[in-house]
């Protein structure tokens, strides 16, 4: 009896351990093959942080083939994405940005849009935007039908990631990236598809970032050019009074001032 039990145990171990162990590993990650098959993108999306270098990419645009870093060159840039051509919210947004061309240029900011369609539809959509908004879209619009840039910049919603097996393709959310001349990401804004963006806020943030970089200050809530700034806590009140006008100490850590020294 003892010899029979000894021979049966190894056979049971060899039969049960390997078949149940190996399928468990392959079933844990069903998403990776789907991403590669349908989107030609990695399963893991990058984590973009403020201060990190904006990922470079090459793409086709309404202005021809483009290298993103070469496009930025030594300027500020704003990259904003759209779910699709011929969609109502996107049409109003692109028209609004186009109308602000002069204001972006005054700040040394280049604009570039992205829409999750191929290049064949962009030109006709631009015609619609120009007609509806009574403007002229002069900045390039990236064609991103394969979602390469959308995944590179994490412009995909969690719902679409969760349902990628059923949909086979992901929609691009409304994202805004403000990038400085060093090609560092300075601001990100993510919007749901149902909500149009606020161009005034984009300009306000650019003003705040550029002023802070130049003057070494911070800006309070709803700040606009010409209003009082905040003296950073790293600067003493005495040093602030030598640099700024009308320094007001509300709290030791909260001091307002006017830019410039008369």
TrEMBL record:
PROSITE patterns: THIOREDOXIN_2. One of its GO terms (cellular component) is cytosol. Keywords: Antioxidant, Oxidoreductase, Peroxidase, Redox-active center. Residues 48-211 form the Thioredoxin domain. GO terms for molecular function: thioredoxin peroxidase activity. InterPro entries: AhpC/TSA, Peroxiredoxin_AhpC-typ, Peroxiredoxin_C, PRX_1cys, Thioredoxin-like_sf, Thioredoxin_domain. The active site is at 90 (cysteine sulfenic acid (-soh) intermediate). GO terms for biological process: cell redox homeostasis; cellular response to oxidative stress. Thiol-specific peroxidase that catalyzes the reduction of hydrogen peroxide and organic hydroperoxides to water and alcohols, respectively. Belongs to the peroxiredoxin family. Prx6 subfamily. This is Mitochondrial peroxiredoxin-like protein Prx1. It comes from Melanomma pulvis-pyrius CBS 109.77.
